[in-house]
Predict the 3D structure of the following.
Amino acid sequence: MKSSVRQFKRIAAGATAGALLLTGLAACSSGGSDTPASNDTASNDTESSTESTDGSSVTMWTRAPLERQATNAVEAYNVSHDSKVTLEILPNDDVEGKVGAAVQTDSLPCLLAGDVVRVPYWTQQGVFTDTTDRIDSLPEKDNLAVGHIDAGTYEGGKHTLPFVQDISVLVWNKDLYEKAGLDPEKGPQNLDEFVEHAQAIAALNEDGVAGSYLSGQSGGALVFTLFPNVWADGEEVLNEDGTEALMDSDSAQAVYAAYRVLAETDNGLGAGSKEETGATWTAPFAEGNIGVMPYPFTAVTGLFEEAPFEIGVSGIPGSKGGESTFLGGDAIGITSSCDNEDAAWDFMSWLMTEDAQQEVFADNNDTAANLSVLETGYANADERTQAANKVIANGRTPAAVYFNEAFNSAGSPWQVLIQNAVWGDAGSVASDNEAITAILSQ
């Protein structure tokens, strides 16, 4: 194996699996089921221009929060191809340890989908095969969102493509808004309104109901939901090369102050916010108990038809207005352990086609990575999906080799910063930010 993979073996041997939500590996996605599953069945009739006929089978690993989207993709592929993909769903918190162990034994599956913020590290450690020539030859290459490709680009070599794009949005319970005398058709336009709306819901004093919710012990969920507040103000969260944290800026501190106000308000933040590890952070809103909060779009689309209450969706506002989103989700690549790259690539290249992107993602109210589909494939989509898509143009994906260690892992300095800023010593933001930088700049 590559020398960088051998290096990763040594690193992984002493590592422990962290809480990697979001997000995840996690900055970036929904709180779906963490039950391991597999899927090699098919249920629709997508046609593919890249159909393989050799009957090969390859395995793909993906993480539980994106199980629905991954299942849609695999089923659509398998029904129209002789080659098959067998899907294995990994509990979110197990991904890092599972990948590390498989690297040590050269037993990675052919296809690995992982949180886009972790992909730069995996790529530099040789987990993925260089597929530059294959990617550059894709007919759709210039029509794909580049963030997930850039995340897997190292020393000029391209290693990954978009798999599932997830974005963070602001959601509100229209039924609770109406009860609180708020306009149910208009969510907060800035941080002050966010606090006002949440406090109005809190003042209902309904059993179990709170103004908002925060995943206080999940660094990944916290970056996914709070970074966009800063970007909406036109500010950055990291320097250009990802080696310095900028989480003590005025815009960032305005975010912490808003949540601190809610933490000090009766029913301002839902019970368990301070201790929330990310395993259940989407549940309180889904159960109808939260007024307004930032949320993964992949999680809210499933509620459009199922929730017994009406839901509003918008971009995440800043202290000065504006709106932004975290362009998260998972990238996918062929691993260095794969012995059937052609079959693995057949799935990846098929998924980039307009037809596949339309059926697998757009038709299910999920975010397409093909720009043509993103622009024209949602004319009949739910208006909330259309609203979410509009904010993508002002979204960001932070990139740093040690992003996971600095932000996502359990007990990260970013997690400590939030605990202090919202519930503890609000005066420690500058020193906590320095601790994040110390890890990013290793």
The longest strand covers residues 161-173. The chain has two domains: 3-166+328-391, 167-327+401-440. Residues 3-166+328-391 form a domain with the D-Maltodextrin-Binding Protein; domain 2 fold (CATH 3.40.190.10). Residues 219-232 form the longest helix (14 residues).
